Amino acid sequence: MSRVCSVCGKGKMGGNKVSHSNRKSPRQWNANVQKVAIVDAKGTISSQYVCTRCLRSKKVQRKAI
């Protein structure tokens, strides 16, 4: 399973690593996703990857401990 947020779809982002001499080589930034147990609208509990921004903004309801 890929590390993509199941709520907003945030995933890897690409760009260049730039050295001090301004040479460029490709690199990737990974999204900060956590595997959490969430409760959906029907009340079923499932384990999915959710980014920390969606967790912090309460876009998903986590399972009560």
Short description:
The chain is 8% helix and 43% strand.
Could you explain the architecture of this structure?
The protein has 65 residues and is mainly beta. It has one domain: Ribosomal Protein L24e, Chain: T, CATH 2.30.170.40. 8% of the residues lie in helices and 43% in strands. The chain contains one helix and five strands. The strands form two sheets. It has a three-stranded antiparallel β-sheet with strand order 4-3-5. The chain starts with 12 loop residues before the first strand and ends with a strand.
Shape: rod-shaped
Strand order of the largest sheet: 4-3-5
CATH topology: Ribosomal Protein L24e, Chain: T
Output the CATH homologous superfamily: Ribosomal protein L28/L24
State the assembly state of the protein chains. single chain
Number of strands: 5
Please describe the biggest sheet, giving its number of strands, its sense, and whether it closes into a barrel: 3 strands, antiparallel
Mean pLDDT, to the nearest integer, reads 93
- Give the % helix: under 10%
Question: What string gives the helices and strands in order?
Answer: EEEEHE
Give Rg in angstroms: 16 Å
- The helix/strand class is mainly beta
Instruction: Give the strand content.
Output: 35-45%
According to CATH, what is the class?
Mainly Beta
